[in-house]
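Hi there, hope your week has been kind to you so far. For a while now I've been wondering how a particular protein folds. I'm sending you its amino acid sequence along with the backbone structure tokens. Could you read through the record and tell me how the tokens relate to the sequence? Take your time with it, there's no hurry, and the full record follows here.
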Amino acid sequence: MPSVFPPHLSRRWALAALVAGSALLGACTTVVREPAHPQVVVREVPAPLVEVIPGPPGPGMHWVPGHWAWRDGNWRWMGGHYVASAVPPMPPPYVEMVPAAPSPTHVWVRGHWYWGEHGWVWARGAWVLR
């Protein structure tokens, strides 16, 4: 279908429509940003210390190896010692899901095993203030 406008006006009209359309399209775009994921700071369990195991103090005594435990806001080395009951090996750590931090001033302390009155006890991971 032939244009009702002269050719030089048709080009201007098309150019004006293109510019107006681009402006409208630009005004309708939305920038989506991913929410900022705060970096989780983890207080890892330190590597075990090397201990010299002394001879048992008596028959039927069993060695509990030294290990790290979270005490008083820090990792503390719990030295190896002898007990009268059998000592199984320390179990492997549990895989824990880390929940959202209560605040940016908290750090995650991983769960860990420690020797309790009746054997190995799992201390669950927890958020603590830095």
Notes: The longest strand covers residues 67-71. Residues 44-129 form one domain. The chain has one helix and nine strands.
